[in-house]
Design goal:
homodimer; 247 residues; alpha/beta; two-stranded antiparallel sheet; 8 helices; 33% helix; binds adenosine-5'-diphosphate; binds zinc ion
Chain lengths: 247, 247
Amino acid sequence: QQIMHEVYSKLSSIKHVVAVLSSKGGVGKSVIASSIAIYAAMHGKKVAIFDADMHGSSIPWLIGLRNAFAAISIDGIIKPVERDTIAVLSIELFLKEKNAPVVWRGPLKTRTILDFLSRTEWGERDLMVIDLPPGTGDEALTIAQTLKDRINGVVLVLTPGLMVSHVVTKAYEFLKMLNLPLLGTVLNMAYFKCPHCGNVYRVFGSQPQIPNEGPLIEIPLDPKLAEAVDSGQLYEFLKASESEGAQ
Amino acid sequence: QQIMHEVYSKLSSIKHVVAVLSSKGGVGKSVIASSIAIYAAMHGKKVAIFDADMHGSSIPWLIGLRNAFAAISIDGIIKPVERDTIAVLSIELFLKEKNAPVVWRGPLKTRTILDFLSRTEWGERDLMVIDLPPGTGDEALTIAQTLKDRINGVVLVLTPGLMVSHVVTKAYEFLKMLNLPLLGTVLNMAYFKCPHCGNVYRVFGSQPQIPNEGPLIEIPLDPKLAEAVDSGQLYEFLKASESEGAQ
Ligand SMILES: Nc1ncnc2c1ncn2[C@@H]1O[C@H](COP(=O)(O)OP(=O)(O)O)[C@@H](O)[C@H]1O
Ligand SMILES: Nc1ncnc2c1ncn2[C@@H]1O[C@H](COP(=O)(O)OP(=O)(O)O)[C@@H](O)[C@H]1O
Ligand SMILES: [Zn+2]
């Protein structure tokens, strides 16, 4: 189909494509996706990050571009917004009123994702990171079906707790169904270490029970990370604590 | 339209309808929705809970029905699964393989929600709680448009942090757009109190900045609640700690 051809040609100058997925919301997908992009940029890579979450797009906020606007030229070409060597595209960058909800049904979300992928000039990039919304619906399906030959790997994100493991196991099954390679799993908010007395608590419950393919990276629940996110300073936070580097 | 008529007739024996919404995932919507239903049942009310989250349905797990199955009779009538005085309906109750992902696009999700609402025999109920998935997409839109004259109020759930506030403000706008009344807001995981030294930490960042209409209820990040959820013992946990009662 014509649009697939356009998508592949627009992505032809991107070396690697990684998607960040979880069937569960609020586990830290956007923070992890942004951290991967920022970390790669800190190591001299040219990066693109595509926010496929139409209803809760947080990528511009996390990259420090919360008040930026993307533009579409009269011939329909979309230019992403850049910060250092990271090019960002998100529906949020097109909202005049940043608090406005995107109240769209599936077909419109799908068409917008295909529009974004087929009309954006990303330029030369070493890596593209795709942040997916929670669930295995229109967005994840469209990205998986459109980019199945381009996605090099998927990072799965979850938090502790058996109920969350149950829901995130569905994401593993989704990857198998669509033949997408799993790069590794991030167990986020794995524990909280009291800064005062040093006691460690698994605040969200048991260790996950998930099909354990590839590396498992644990990230603690860290109030300093939350503060950095609050103030849109994730970039600065990661620079200062090189060790936190998610991937 | 014919289906609207069927929906209203199936809900005619339900006194109040409350929806639980957040444009952000993982904030505790399912835990709050289940807690409201369990709390009402503990006080002698007849309750129904409808899980409109197709991709991450956790309600059967939370009500202690994770291995239960719902049935459809040959004339197409759906009977919810009951525990005490709570009737539960969720896509999860129809999955033979409970780990299977529901990989559906918007139109199929919409049709399933309308099917569930127009064919389920709820019986006499004092209260119906509707758990919505994150976002302002097909599910929230279908429920809001179909039940706009039946929904008595919406409970909004969020966690601390300015980025989450930004995304959840979109849910407030959504309620205004659709003229749905706001009952109150639950600030979940508001703080963590170290069981050992008593220090209190706002692990997710700043107090939310949201349009503050109606009461704001704060619930702490509580490892005991997470453990109860893990083992499907939310019912027992709430009974034991009457004080925790969410609403
Ligand atoms: N390890 C962590 N420690 C503290 N806060 C975190 C951590 N990871 C994520 N957060 C916070 O949790 C919230 C949800 O993260 P987000 O990346 O938006 O999740 P998702 O994209 O899965 O919905 C954000 O407010 C973020 O600041
Ligand atoms: N106050 C709390 N303290 C500890 N854990 C909580 C609390 N509220 C929710 N959780 C845990 O957080 C996770 C997400 O909750 P859930 O209700 O599934 O969120 P949502 O429905 O918004 O995606 C679950 O594992 C649940 O056990
Ligand atoms: Zn302590």
